[in-house]
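Milestone 3.1: sequence recovery, worked example.
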């Protein structure tokens, strides 16, 4: 005999499973995050992460959402500088990221 599981039950289970996965699958969005990303573009945009300038990584047409996601989490305090550094250096291993990382961290203090 085949059991029919209500769709609402499946949605609830999926929501609970996703909310328990590290607490940060999606970067925070809002004025603070957008202001931080704009600040990165203005002050660090010409520096490179991997082999791409930060301006490119922030551009919507680049189809690279990882950098924006990680930078948003950093600005919201969801990850610390060490985690951000490890994540960025693991995802963008090409090149020397240190100058760009230093610039990004300098922006955390405010404007």
């Amino acid at each position: 005999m085949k059991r029919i599981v209500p769709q609402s039950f499946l949605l609830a289970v999926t929501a609970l499973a996703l909310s328990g996965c590290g607490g940060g699958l999606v970067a925070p969005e809002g004025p603070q995050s957008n202001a931080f990303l704009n600040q990165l573009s203005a002050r660090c945009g010409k520096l490179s992460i991997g082999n791409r300038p930060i301006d490119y990584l922030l551009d919507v047409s680049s189809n690279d959402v990882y950098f924006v996601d990680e930078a948003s989490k950093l600005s919201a305090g969801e990850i610390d500088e060490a985690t951000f550094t490890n994540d960025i250096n693991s995802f963008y291993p090409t090149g020397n990221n240190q100058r760009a990382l230093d610039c990004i961290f300098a922006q955390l203090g405010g404007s």
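Residues 5-25 have pLDDT under 50 and may be disordered. The first helix runs from residue 7 to 19.
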